[in-house]
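Hey, I'm writing a tutorial for new members on how sequence and structure tokens pair up, and I'd like a real worked example in the thread rather than a made-up one. If someone can provide the structure for the chain below, I'll link this post from the tutorial.
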Amino acid sequence: MKTKDRILSVSLELFNRDGVAQVSTLIIATEMGISPGNLYYHFRGKEEIISTLVAELQNSMTTISNEYVKQVKDFDDYWPFMHTGMALFTHYRFLFRNLDNLNGQNPLLKRKIKTLILKFRHLILDMLTHLVDLGKLKCDKETLPLLADNLLLVSLNWLNYQTLLDGKYSESDLVRAGVLRLISMVEPYLTESAESPFYTHQDLLDELVS
């Protein structure tokens, strides 16, 4: 792996584990075993590292948004696709754990994060609308945007809640628990014809109410 890619990888791991405010470029360089000068050869500072990670997530979001049309054709395609989206958000979870801090640092970074969140909201609304068209979701046009907003809010904030209660969850456990939380919000609107092999109502009770 090239040094620049290693810097991004190690920074992401540290940001996710310790939070942005607690991680400096010196800590990143020390963790990697390189000099601060070597790090600054690739990035002018922590803010540029964060901006590059945001751009990575934006590119990934664009990819899954484009793939959505190709991959999601029927009801059973939704939950694996939702899992992909939640895995992506979990991988870059430091961004959503530190939104207030990051938004106050740089206007350009704030715009990038806002664009990213709006793109995700648009994707969620498209998915819900498609479920209505498939006859799998019973939800009026006035309620759909509210449901999309609520799903987005949970997607952005549930990790803070979960890790506050128990920081020992593995990343795969966090992803599954996150997807089940989203499903639990959609489930009351599902029609009788909406059955999925990827979860049952008992899954929701066992994992979310225990």
